[in-house]
Write a structure and sequence with these properties.
By secondary structure, this protein is of the alpha/beta class. It folds into 2 domains: 2-173, 3-Layer(aba) Sandwich (Rossmann fold); 186-276, Pantoate-beta-alanine ligase, C-terminal domain (Pantoate--beta-alanine Ligase, Chain: A,domain 2), CATH 3.30.1300. The chain has 10 helices and 9 strands. The protein has a 6-stranded parallel beta sheet with strand order 1-4-3-2-5-6, with helices on both faces. The longest helix has 16 residues, at 124-139. The chain is globular. The structure holds adenosine monophosphate. Residues 29-30, 36-37, 39-40, 146-147, 149-150, 173, 175-176, 183-186 line the site of adenosine monophosphate.
């Protein structure tokens, strides 16, 4: 497995593997890799001939009071996991290699990025789209793999790729969960034992939403209310939002749809968690 820190080295490595219709797959990550990340690598390994994982804690997507400094960094273990997953190349740039002095270009969407997560984390998605655009330009992948765990993010990347005519196929992989339902996340390691117990409420709220949907009697808004009621008052849990919205636009639903998505964000202790579940009404 090749490990490269320079964009130019990645570019030439990829070029030498781009022959005879070989497919290049990219899995962008911020490291502190877990089984959820590995599921993306496995999908890329199944579908592509040359698999690249990027590991970069992107300062541009963290707000001033967010956890950039204490975001977990476990590079040696991450490289081992990539090797075990059969990854061909790991790109581990330093910040100075991604954003040289004087850099002033950003990629920014006008609407999807301003909703839900965007309301609570202003500028977050501009950081995401800018770094993903750079990763696409450096690696020129045929396919790029993202997790449904970050539902709004994968929607935004799809929009960006379509709007800017990028020839890359976006693959969204299912959420990988712990045994008790908690969605795997690099940030889960910051949960105290008490926080860890409280964090189960996110999955319980999403499961409630799914059960109510299947029962068929409640509207999307009523289901969102029930999720909010369930989460209210749980010790140490402060929800930012719990909504049921349109799968593509993230807008509130006017009529009973065929499909919708339930999205939750909550602070559990000092850690902010997000999770979601697709709901099928008919
Ligand atoms: P991150 O390192 O948090 O930026 O995540 C890198 C990629 O892994 C993103 O596309 C995430 O959506 C995806 N991912 C993170 N956690 C999970 C999970 N539990 N299941 C599936 N994909 C995940």
């Amino acid at each position: 497995m090749q490990v490269e820190a320079l964009p130019s080295s990645v570019r030439s490595a990829v070029q030498s593997h781009r022959y005879g219709g070989r497919r290049i797959g990219l899995v962008p990550t911020m490291g502190a890799l877990h089984v959820g990340h590995v599921s993306l690598m496995d999908a890329a390994r199944r579908e592509c001939d040359f698999v690249i994982v990027s590991i970069f804690v992107n300062p541009l997507q963290f707000g001033p009071n967010e956890d950039f400094e204490c975001y977990p960094r476990t590079l040696e273990r991450d490289l081992q996991k990539c090797e075990n997953a059969g990854v061909d190349l790991v790109f581990t740039p330093a910040t100075s290699q991604m954003y040289g002095s004087g850099a002033e270009s950003i990629v920014s969407l006008t609407s999807l990025t301003r909703k839900l997560e965007g309301r609570h984390r202003p500028d977050h998605f501009d950081g995401v789209t800018t770094v993903v655009a750079k990763l696409f330009n450096i690696t020129v992948p045929d396919k790029a793999y993202f997790g449904q765990k970050d539902y709004q993010q994968q929607l935004i990347i799809r929009r960006m790729v379509s709007d800017l005519d990028w020839g890359v196929e976006i693959v969204t992989c299912p959420i990988v969960r712990e045994d008790d339902g908690l969605a795997m996340s690099s940030r889960n390691r910051h949960l105290s034992p008490a926080d860890r117990a409280s964090s189960q409420i996110l999955f319980r709220a999403l499961s409630l939403a799914q059960n109510l949907t299947q029962a068929g009697s409640e509207s999307p808004d009523a289901i969102a209310d029930r999720m909010q009621q369930l989460m209210a008052g749980v010790q140490g849990v402060e929800p930012d939002y719990a909504v049921v919205v349109d799968c593509d636009t993230l807008e509130p639903l006017v009529e009973q749809p065929e499909r919708a998505v339930a999205l939750i964000a909550a602070r559990v202790g000092k850690t902010r968690l997000i999770d979601n579940q697709i709901l099928r009404f008919r």
